[in-house]
Write a structure and sequence with these properties.
The structure is a homodimer of 194-residue chains. With 194 residues, chain A is an alpha+beta fold. Chain A is built from five helices and eight strands.
Chain lengths: 194, 194
């Protein structure tokens, strides 16, 4: 109990995201979407791992997030997503996007019902994402309650190069939705598998 | 970013709960409700603080939890709770209960809608708690996604000695509810203000 360190009980639910000398992804771009970018790095590679990635003086930041229970989908939406989705790590999915996001305090002050209304009834977050399955594999990581970065979520997407246009379309739809009015910091990191 | 330690960005949202030599509460009892108890301690006092409480070799455990956004209440329930509640730290509220709880994996696999249905429609968690306000002040802390203890929540209650019977009644109602069928570990720590 007392000797357990943070995250020790999470197993593969806790993921780290960082520039890393021996990362399995090559960094294509790091672009601020809303608010400041992440500090620039001399490293050319990037890791998503369940153990702390090796970092150097040139790699001055690390993001962390936990996969967790669903928050907004109904039973039907959850089942439809599960049936249509494919997992991470597919050989053909050689592109990835790591997009850390923060939502403003006004979002977190809303009730569940108000957040669900904006998320799905107004923004069609799940409905708009469904047509992009299984091409775009997606994993959400929560970090708001970890309190060690400026972000609430780290979103991770993997897709094949031929689905890159579809991915841009999906991201544009999400960013144009009412839900995104509550996003006050977002950085878009694009990656290519080594 | 990189130099931020876990919890540094949480401020007063992160709370620690532990036996502590100079704690502001005296331990009255530590009783397992479901599953194993916490390790026994030679310390007689207890702290709830926003900084790590002093511990000794005799105090071998520490719980940690984060206050967070609401998950299950509707707008109306939230507003009714806020209107009826009083805060922690009232001079007359010299009794406290610290009750760490874990819910089984089956609970976390349910959709939001299924969890809300069990929480309120079947168990009347909020409706049953309302009559005990403002006598019983309550604060929920989340720790499932911190991964450093065996618990998902640390619940904290404060009340005056004359409301102790009402508190037992509330706790008994909650434990008899369908929601509690999903609780697979619970320890009940009772405290008295020094």
């Amino acid at each position: 109990m007392a000797s357990m360190k943070l995250g020790e009980g999470l197993g593969a639910r806790l993921n780290f995201f960082a520039p890393s000398p021996d990362g399995e992804w090559r960094i294509l771009s790091v672009n601020p979407v809303t608010g400041p970018s992440l500090p620039s790095t001399d490293l050319t590679h990037f890791s998503r791992t369940t153990v702390t990635p090796p970092t150097t003086a040139e790699s001055s930041w690390i993001l962390r997030g936990v996969t967790s229970n669903t928050r907004y989908v109904t039973n039907e939406e959850r089942d439809a997503l599960n049936a249509a989705s494919e997992g991470l790590g597919r050989p053909q999915a050689t592109r990835a996007a790591c997009i850390p996001i923060r939502k403003m305090a006004a979002w977190w002050a809303l009730s569940q019902q108000e957040r669900r209304d904006i998320f799905e009834t107004q923004s069609h977050h799940t409905a708009n994402s469904m047509p992009y399955l299984p091409a775009i594999a997606r994993q959400l990581h929560h970090c708001r309650d970890l309190g060690d970065t400026d972000f609430d979520f780290v979103t991770w997407f993997e897709y094949a190069p031929e689905d890159a246009d579809a991915f841009e379309e999906l991201v544009a739809k999400l960013r144009a939705s009412p839900e995104w009015k509550y996003v006050d910091r977002e950085v878009d990191i694009r990656l290519e598998r080594v």
